[in-house]
Amino acid sequence: MKKKIAIEFGKKLAEKRKEKDILQKDLSQQCGFSLNYIGIVERGEKSISLEKVYVIAAILECSVHDLIPDEKAILLEVE
After folding, report:
1. Residue spans of alpha helices (H) in the chain
2. Which residue windows are transmembrane per the record (predicted)?
3. What Cα–Cα distance (Å) separates residue 57 from each residue in 6, 26, 77?
4. d(CA 48, CA 56)
5. pLDDT, tens digit, 9 for 90 and up, residues 44-65
6. What is the pLDDT of residue 76?
């Protein structure tokens, strides 16, 4: 389940970033995270801390909720 959440979070992050027309490189610079880290998170290879979610949401000018995967979809995958 943990991996599924990371993958779905990464998809939502990439979607929101592209929606805002921001490159990974630009997001990484604005957040103070490495470009490699942003890529890893978007691919779902690593879970992200809640603190970093808040930083990214602020940069993307969206709510944290906009980046969090739908819990029903996550739970359906597990059952």
Report:
1. 2-19, 24-31, 35-42, 50-60, 71-78
2. none
3. 16, 14, 26
4. 11
5. 999 999 999 999 999 999 999 9
6. 62
